[in-house]
Amino acid sequence: MIKNQVDTVVSAAKAAGRNALDESAGKALLADYGIRVPQSRVAKGVADVDAVMQGLQVPVVVKVMSPDILHKSDAGGVKINLRSATEVKAAIEDMLAAPKIKGARIEGFLVEEMAPSGHELVIGGLRDPQFGPLVMVGLGGIFVEIFKDVSFRLCPIARIDAEEMLDELKAAAILKGARGGKPASREAIIEVLLKMGGEDGLLLKHAADISEADINPLIVSETGAVAVDARFILG
Amino acid sequence: MSIVEQFTPLFAPKTVAVIGASTKGNALPNVFIRRIREFGFSGDIYPIHPAAAEIDGLTAYKSLADTPKPVDYAYIAVSGAQIPGMLAAAKGHVRFAQVISSGFGEVDEGKGLQDELVQAAKAGGMRLLGPNCLGIYTPRGRVTFAEIGPKETGPVGIVSQSGGLGTDIIRRGLSRGLKFSGLVTVGNCADVTPSDLLEFYLADPQTRVIGMYIETAKDGRRLFDILRKARASKPVVILKGGRTQQGLAAAASHTGSLAGDDRVWVALARQTGCMLVDTLDHFIDTLLIFQTLSPRPQRPTRKVVLFGNGGGTSVLATDYFSRLDLDVTPFDQGPIDALAALKLPPGTSITNPVDCPVGTLQQDDGRVAEKILDIICGQGKPEALVMHLNLSAFVGRTKPEVLDNLVAAAMRVQEKYPGQSHFILVLRSDGEPALEARKREFRDKAVALGVPVYDEMANAGHPLAALASFERYRAARGG
């Protein structure tokens, strides 16, 4: 996708009075900056599923797309590990019946290849009223939520800043494969950090429009990093 | 015009106008006139007064536009509402106006008046400092708002958003041996901001180290850009007051909710090499180390040797320093053997820390210490050497010159191994008045020789860790 189209995605969302990009628009934005996202397609409803499943590798995950639902998992709008069109259709029917989804405006269902296993990271962005865009990295789950083990820098960051951000995480050893775990590709994380927070990165380029951003999770294996979910708050 | 040229009328004014001085001679501006005369200001002073012909023996003028020569610096302390009109009337005749008066943007009902003030300064063609501040202290220009302060120009440039803290920095700095290239209080920063003065100090050849007290950085992005561009060419120490909570309440993302407190300031420090401190004491301690010692990025400080009297003090300091990521590990066998060959009295510990009771230190009037220090520097090769003397333990047991001999010995060893180890002196005392006086006299001598002096080991640890982090930053970024 070329930048103009992505800008259209951002401006379209703003024109529609949205305060956030939906997941597929968010991922299109990431892909435009060279950040890997899982292959995905949108099904309007169960009728589309057979066509949509052509060309996608199973297992897939299905996520509801709705401007009314910010926390999809909590609403029952995420089903993982689906291995066939039949399973995908059943998942969509379940969602349509879920209490928190029933009444919402539904724009479709994102059917997406599941990322290979790896470390879960969060990479985020935030526009400070005085300092402008900041970029953040941390390990997902309890490391972010409980220990608040994250590292911030002001945009733009250079490679050495990205390196130091990772080094100052208390959980840095986990990424290197502590306790018999597999290491995460440091290079892949640094690349995503630079594509988000670097000189030509997404956060600086869209500083006027994006007030907050989360890639959560970014799944990082030994060989690469994939942005599995992304949220962009506009404003 | 270069930034240094732009700010020269502020730091070295040839003409000073004063608004608010009374014919009775008892208002704050009268005190200001007296102070700058005592401080040795030799330029023209123009009191501005609507009616008087003369104030404090000086010819008074009706308006800022009426002075015989253009005004480099105007000191203004009258009630706020009159000031905008006075500035607007200056018609390009004034370079810098500092408004001491309060009642502007710091209170809700004064916000409109502050906007007026800014517009008036613009219309009058001048830069505005303040309002709501105390003044400037600039030894090179012989202008000061403070009651005391060194007359000598030094390497430390300060900008403070608080006037009172500015006074503290001068007074406490004086007693610690700090020498300033300037100190500017900027109050509400309606026009000139800390970033502007940072830019000046970075370019100013007099200034080698910069200290900033900041409460709010309205132009935070510019502060970041200036620091980033400077690539840590000079050490910048930031004392940050007040923590930013903006944007937090509305945060809708993980990132937003995690960004609170001072993470942005920590990020700024890590990225630009500036140093954050939490207290006025740390601020002064850190400025002092950069005034006296030259950062050595080619060999960043990590290995530290502690040498002095006081076993418990050595042990506590070893723990404290290691928490600051400074390394106080025992010597290799070489220096230990060399120290053992000196056959020092029992009770002397010769690993690292090197703990010498007073008995050892006073041997041969302190000259044994020189041999010990020679081995420490020549063979132990630490990146920093902290010599600590518990003055209480010397009282009544040694001749007064032993202390001088010890420091002289340390200085000779320093000269023998130039650039080998940063040398820091800790003079410990118990607060007893005579001892304090002795310490003070001794401290002045040492600081004049370029040795930073601290009261306790912990006070020395923080600035040393800051120096180390600055050196590491420069080393990692090719500088």
What are the defining features of this structure?
heterodimer; A: 235 residues; alpha+beta; Dna Ligase, domain 1; D-amino Acid Aminotransferase, Chain A, domain 1; 7-stranded antiparallel sheet; 4-stranded antiparallel sheet; 10 helices; B: 479 residues; alpha/beta; Rossmann fold; 7-stranded mixed sheet; 5-stranded parallel sheet; 18 helices
Question: Would you give an account of this structure?
Answer:
The complex is a heterodimer of chains A (235) and B (479). In chain A, helix 1 (3-15) packs antiparallel against helix 2 (23-32) and helix 7 (159-167) crosses helix 9 (186-197). Chain A is globular. Chain A is an alpha+beta fold and 235 residues long. Chain A is built from ten helices and eleven strands. Chain A has two domains: 39-114, ATP-grasp fold, A domain (Dna Ligase, domain 1); 119-234, ATP-grasp fold, B domain (D-amino Acid Aminotransferase, Chain A, domain 1). In chain A, strand 6 and strand 7 (132-139) form a beta hairpin. In chain A, strands 1, 6, 7, 8, 9, 10 and 11 form a seven-stranded antiparallel β-sheet that branches. A four-stranded antiparallel β-sheet of chain A has the order 2-5-3-4. The mean pLDDT of chain A is 91. Chain B is α/β, with parallel strands linked by helices and 479 residues long. Chain B has three domains: 1-129, 3-Layer(aba) Sandwich (Rossmann fold), CATH 3.40.50; 133-292, Rossmann fold (3-Layer(aba) Sandwich); 297-476, Rossmann fold (3-Layer(aba) Sandwich). Chain B is 42% helix and 17% strand. Chain B is built from 18 helices and 19 strands. In chain B, the strands form four sheets. In chain B, strands 9-8-11-10-12-13-14 form a seven-stranded mixed β-sheet, with helices on both faces. In chain B, strands 2-1-5-6-7 form a five-stranded parallel β-sheet, sandwiched between helices. A five-stranded parallel β-sheet of chain B has the order 16-15-17-18-19, with helices on both faces. In chain B, 52% of the residues are buried. Residues 247-251 of chain B have low confidence and may be disordered. The interface between A and B is medium-sized, with 33 and 28 residues.
